[in-house]
Design goal:
This protein has a domain of 96 residues. It has four helices and five strands, in the order αβαββαβαβ. The protein starts with 26 loop residues before the first helix and ends in a 15-residue tail after the last strand. Helices cover 27% and strands 15% of the residues. With 157 residues, it is of the alpha/beta class.
């Protein structure tokens, strides 16, 4: 259906005022979200989950643990019966602590920006094994990033 005419009109916006409280999501909410993921995953036969996040793909990680991966890539590893692990690079290290989510931080410098130190991280297969992931496990992957042989930590095992 063609538009016959268009008119531009000025309107005033309602007054919302200033916020009086800072909106915060309690840690217990994040813990419940992780528990729900684990429960659903166990019913589906999963042994664990890896959740990838970066600046453009932040929602899954932020929803589950409150960490917004705005500076670098991140990987949240969830294995039933274990504390969640959040793999972060150099710039995410301090920020992840401030977020106070239900996770233990793990330094994985491959996620660091170019030209930053990369000499204090274990290899990814070792980190994932320490998180509780094993060969033969059925792992749910949420989010994605293409890595291949030649990328630090990949194709070395």
């Amino acid at each position: 259906m063609p538009v016959a005419s268009v008119a531009l009109k000025t309107m005033s916006l309602p007054e919302f005022g200033e916020p009086t409280v800072m909106p915060l999501i309690p840690r217990a909410t994040y813990e419940a979200r992780i528990e729900a993921l684990v429960a659903r995953g166990l019913k589906a036969g999963f042994d664990g989950f890896v959740i990838y996040g970066d600046r453009e793909h932040a929602a899954n990680v932020a929803y589950l643990c409150g960490y917004d991966p705005r500076f670098e890539e991140t990987l949240l590893v969830i294995v039933p019966g274990r504390e969640a692990k959040l793999l972060v690079g150099n710039e995410g290290w301090g920020y992840a602590e401030l977020c106070g989510g239900p996770y233990e931080r793990v330094l994985y410098q491959t996620f660091s920006l170019p030209a930053q130190p990369r000499d204090r991280s274990d290899a990814l297969p070792d980190i994932l094994a320490a998180c509780g992931l094993r060969s033969g496990h059925r792992i749910g992957a949420i989010g994605w990033k293409s890595f291949g042989a030649g990328d630090a930590g990949f194709g070395e095992a």
